[in-house]
Every structure is written in C-alpha cells, then in structure tokens.
Amino acid sequence: MNMSAAHIVTEFILLGFPGCWEIQIFLFSLFLVVYALTLMGNGAIICAVKWDPRLYTPMYFLLGNFAFLEIWYVSSTVPNMLVNILSKTKAISFSGCFLQFYFFFSLGTAECLFLAVMAYDRYQAICHPLHYPIIMTRRLCGTLVSLCWLTGFLGYPIPIFFISQLPFCGPNTIDHFLCDMDPLMALSCAPAPITEFIFYTQSSLVLFFTITYILRSYTLLLRAVFQIPSTAGRRKAFSTCGSHLTVVSLFYGTVMVMYVSPTYGISALMQKILTLVYSIMTPFLNPLIYSLRNKDMKLALRNVLFGRRISQNS
Predict the structure, then answer these.
(1) With 0-12 CB in 10 A as exposed, 13-18 as middle and 19+ as buried, what is 293?
(2) 310: pLDDT strictly greater than 50
(3) Hey, which residues does 174 pair with through a beta bridge?
(4) Strand residue runs (E) in the chain
(5) Closest-CA residue to 210 (of 158, 273, 152)
(6) Tens digits of per-residue pLDDT, 109-155?
(7) Where are the beta strands (DSSP E) in 122-231?
(8) Residues contacting residue 244 through CB under 8 Å, at least 6 positions apart
(9) Alpha-carbon gap, residue 112 to 200, rounded angstroms
C-alpha cells in the first residue's frame, strides 16, 4: 500500500462509556468533580511544599514534583473525555489522537520513574539515616527529577511517530475513552509487528525495571524497619513508607494488567475501568493517601487550605 495514502482516516470516534443521555450527564458530572478535586488536591500539595519551611526536605520536594506530574497526567485524558461525553459526534482528530497517545504514555512513564525515585529516597532515609543529608542533596534531587521528565518524554516520539505513519483506512471507531495502543493497532490496515514489538518491549522494560527496583528497595527497607528497637520509631517508618507503597500498588497493579498481561480475555468495559483506575483515580487519591498518615503534610495542607500564615519558627 502506498504510504502517501496512509491517512485516509482523518479522525477517530471515541465511543467512551455506553449509556443513555441521563447516564452520560451523570458521568460528566462525576468526572468533572473528580478532575476538579484532583487539581485542587495536588495543587494544594505543591503549595504546601513550596510555602511551608518544615517541608523543605528531599521527600517533600519529590512529592511536590510528583503532584505536579499528576496534574498533567490526569489533564492528558479527562478534559477531552468530558468534551467527548457531551459531544454528539464523539470525534477526535487524527493528530489530536496521537498527541494524546504521546502525552499519556510519556507522562505515565515519568510516573513510573518518579515512584522508583521516591522509593530510593525512602530507602536512603531509613536504611542510611546518617548519610541521608549528604546523599540526597538538592542537586541530586533536581537531577533525578529532570531525568524522570526527560526519559518519559524522549522515550516515545519515535515509536509513536512510526505508528502514526501506518495506514488507517477505516473503520475509525475506538471503543475506549482515550487513544491507546491496542485500539489503534486494531484499526491499522497493515500489520506492524516490529513497531508493536518495540513499543511493548519498551513499555514492559520500564514497568519491570521500576517495579523490581521498588520491591527490592522496600524489601531492604522493611528489614531495616524491623531492626529499629523502639515501637514509635517503627510506627513512624511504616507511616512514611505506607503511603508510597499504597500508591505503588494501586498504580502498578492496574497498569500491569493492562500492558503486561494478555488483554484479549478482558472485555472492553473492564479495560476502560482499569484505565480509569490508574489514569484518573490514582491522581485523585494521591493527595488523600499522602496526607492522611502524615502529620507534617496534614498541618501544612490545613495552613494552605484555610489561609493561615505559616510561621518561620513553627
């Protein structure tokens, strides 16, 4: 097939979630509220980290950057999904679809790397507390954050460009609420096993290497925690690590079901629900998870949300 005629399809139809108009209005209202609360919650964490001197530590510096990432991650899907729910045509342009595809996977990759860096930070803080201030300098934290962003955004332009050059000659209906790998490859008129293999290998390597490192870090970390003599010390260590481990379990659990295990036995509706969990519900729950068991963060968020001035000496 002539590659010049590859883009016969000029737009895609995102079916989203099935249901009558009343259900669509309910879903629109629900996702709008969740999106607004996600922006507020993660925005509050960013403000707390920036304004409260008690949070000027590597852990909160990483958490603030992670909250910033979550705002962009959820914004790569939800605004278009809200427009799509109210739209009669439910169309997204060809370039718009692949742009969303790129940002969704780039930001998702950056999130995996951020979670690994945050696990490294907790490992150093608990296993090497005396060397922690020397190791986790502001310069190192800045370098690690920059590497997360750069690796996430430089890893996918080439494979996604090659996927966009595949011939899409119809049909153009995607049974999803976003442009994802499997639905797009299913619509291509020509097989691309090499491109598909490279894309899935790259995604799987990111997932496996980061989750392996996180599990290794927490294995060593838990061993160190159990050697802490005081009960109060163990409780504090579990408190600071439990939040991160909860986020890791929620995010990786659903992502690995979607992109590592075979999806041919999973219904389209279940794939949408799993995607909702890691792309929308995880960013929504993160502010709650990280603040519920963290006294410093709770106090800082209270000061931010209720407009109290934070004393430099407090």
Answers:
(1) middle
(2) no
(3) 14
(4) 11-14, 91-93, 173-174
(5) 152
(6) 999 999 999 999 988 988 888 899 999 999 999 999 999 999 999 99
(7) 173-174
(8) 115, 118, 119, 122, 290
(9) 15
Q: How many secondary structure helices (H) and strands (E) does the chain include?
A: 13, 3
Amino acid at 250: L
pLDDT by residue (tens digit) across 85-99? Answer: 999 889 999 999 999
Region of 159 (left: φ > 0; alpha: ψ -120 to 50; beta: rest) is alpha
Lookup: tokens for 106 = 């780039």
Cα torsion through 245, 289, 233, 51, rounded to 10:
120
Is a pLDDT exceeding 70 seen at residue 106? yes
**Shortest CA distance to 185 belongs to which of 256, 252, 264, 255?**
264
**Among candidate residues 72, 48, 73, the one with its CA nearest the CA of residue 61:** 48
Cβ count within 10 A of residue 119:
23
Task: Tell me how far apart the alpha carbons of residues 30 and 281 are, in angstroms, rounded to a whole number.
Answer: 12
pLDDT tens figures, 177-232: 999 888 898 898 888 888 888 888 888 899 999 999 999 988 888 888 777 776 76
Residue 199 amino acid letter: F
> What confidence tens digit (pLDDT) does each residue in 238-252 have?
666 777 788 888 888
Distance CA 18, CA 246 (A): 31
pTM across the whole model: 0.88
Interatomic CA distance for residues 193 and 200, integer angstroms: 10
